[in-house]
Automatic annotation (TrEMBL):
Signal peptide range: 1-24
Cross-referenced InterPro entries: Cu-Rt/internalin_Ig-like, Ice-bd_prot, SbsA_Ig
Family statement: Belongs to the ice-binding protein family.
Full protein name: SbsA Ig-like domain-containing protein
Signal in keyword set: yes
Domain SbsA Ig-like: 50-153, 158-261
Pfam family, one: Big_5
């Protein structure tokens, strides 16, 4: 019996010891598990390498009638590595011919590569130009794919000197904003190497103005380093050093114009440069339909559709000229307002191209001052100068007021359509001018201006523009498709 008790006692003691040891172990484990566990650092976001692109070319893709002594250019979206722009990465080849021998250069200031052929191109020959993926940006990222475009030559050389189509400001302009750039639009593409601070200068009559000169798409811009002086006469000069892309080059005759500044800086973004599209109050690709009688002040045009697509706009309804892509306009039988000869065909075709460039400019503006304002319903609102952006359509049910000065600018980027209600108006206050208001509209329908409504500003629409019965427009109707009129007054804005 005693032996049994001792055995049991020892067993109980051993069991207790083991239990306490186990509990102590658990306590230590619990202590360790209660300590904070270091949080691993998040993996860095992957670096997104955006490849450069070719944003424009000369000649443009599918061009015909290109002068045989032309050079070929490609403009990149960003700075590229000059060492990668070579005769191997930029080539021109004629149909059933070996690659054209030529010299390739890069204008780093404008990101423009130029191919100068060693001799004239063949007459009436199709050529293919190629920028390969060997071209990289300065970070080493290559083009995503080869950029290829074609053109067909004429039988003649270009011996015509470039001219200036328009300037901003105009010669003799007054009250020019102190913080705006000075620009000139040319009749043809220029050699970008010839447009610089020496060939484009600005002076107050005593002192030269310091600034940066840039060139893109037939437009040279002088951007002063500081604001201009108030109430001062300035003179801009374009010299004979400016030349086109012919080889040998044709040079510009000296152009000089003057303007007087106002007292204040402009509010809002820089205005959209319409280039030659600004010579039209209505411009379309697929024609103009019209219910009589409308009253149109300014030139109208359509291209590439035949001029017959404007037949129901009569000469009696327009103070201006109807420009067509051919001689097809018949109207009411009176065609004295119509211009359809070859130079006129070229004029309206170029204006349509400039319309597309202006649309891209307006759509590409960044850092908006207002985003999704009032969820797209701006009815009854007063809007200050600035850049506005909507990912939807815009509704105007009651009067909208744009309040600002004569140099202030509004740009409205509208991803959807614009719908303006019957009888409503866009009211300009404080000296605001229709020429400084730009409506870029990307919707699948376009713009609908209601019956007896009044619209103000320049419409750049990817689709159609419909102006309903009795409505009036102070501005320009520039459509990538068609414009529909119904007994309307459409008046180009004052300069």
């Amino acid at each position: 019996m005693n032996i049994t008790k001792q055995t049991i006692s020892r067993f109980l003691w051993l069991s207790t010891f083991l239990l306490l040891t186990a509990l102590a172990g658990c306590s230590k484990n619990d202590s360790r598990s209660s300590q904070p566990v270091p949080t691993p650092s998040p993996a860095p976001d992957p670096v997104v390498l955006t490849p450069p692109t070719v944003v424009s070319s000369f000649p443009i893709d599918a061009s015909i009638g290109v002068a045989i002594n032309s050079t070929v250019t490609a403009t990149f979206s960003e700075a590229v590595d000059a060492a990668t722009v070579t005769a191997s990465s930029f080539t021109v080849t004629g149909a059933a011919q070996a690659a054209v021998v030529g010299t390739v250069t890069l204008n780093s200031a404008g990101n423009v590569a130029t191919f100068v052929p060693g001799s004239n191109f063949g007459a009436t020959t199709a050529y293919t130009a190629t920028i390969t993926t060997a071209v990289t940006n300065i970070e080493g990222t290559a083009l995503a794919a080869d950029f290829v475009w074609t053109f067909t030559t004429s039988a003649t050389a270009d011996t015509t000197a470039p001219t200036v189509d328009s300037t901003d400001p105009l010669d003799g302009a007054t009250a020019f904003a102190l913080n705006r750039s000075v620009s000139a639009n040319f009749s043809e593409e220029l050699n970008p190497d010839t447009v610089n601070g020496t060939s484009f200068s600005l002076s107050d009559g005593t002192n030269a103005v310091d600034g940066i000169v840039t060139y893109s798409n037939k437009t040279a811009t002088f951007n002063p380093d500081t604001d201009l002086l108030a109430s001062t006469i300035y003179t801009a000069t374009l010299s004979t050093a400016i030349a086109d892309l012919a080889s040998p080059a044709n040079t510009l005759a000296t152009v000089v114009w003057s303007f007087t500044t106002g007292e204040s800086a402009a509010q809002g973004p820089a205005a959209v440069n319409l280039r030659t599209a600004g010579n039209f109050v209505i411009l379309t690709k697929t024609g103009i339909t019209n219910v009589h009688t409308s009253a149109i002040t300014g030139n109208i045009g359509a291209s590439p559709i035949t001029a017959a697509a404007m037949d129901n706009v009569f000469c009696s309804e327009i103070v201006g000229t109807i420009y067509g892509s051919d001689a097809g306009y018949t109207g009411s039988g009176a065609i004295t307002c119509f211009a359809g000869a070859a130079p006129d065909n070229t004029l309206v075709a170029n204006a349509v191209l400039d319309m597309g460039t202006a649309y891209t400019d307006a759509a590409g503006r960044t850092t908006p001052d207002f985003t999704e304002l009032h969820a797209g319903d701006i009815s009854g609102q007063t809007l200050a100068p600035g850049l506005y952006k909507w990912g939807t359509g815009v509704l105007i049910s009651t009067d909208v007021t744009l309040s600002g000065g004569a140099n202030d600018v509004w740009i409205f980027q509208v991803a959807g359509d614009i719908t303006q209600a019957d009888g409503s108006s866009i009211v300009l206050a404080g000296g605001a001018l229709a020429k400084n208001i730009f409506w870029q509209v990307g919707g699948g329908t376009g713009v609908a201006i209601g019956t007896t409504a009044h619209f103000a500003g320049i419409i750049l629409a990817e689709k159609g523009i419909t102006v309903n019965t009795g409505a009036s427009v102070d501005g320009r109707l520039l459509s990538q498709t068609a414009v529909t009129l119904d007994q309307n007054a459409v008046t180009q804005p004052a300069p």
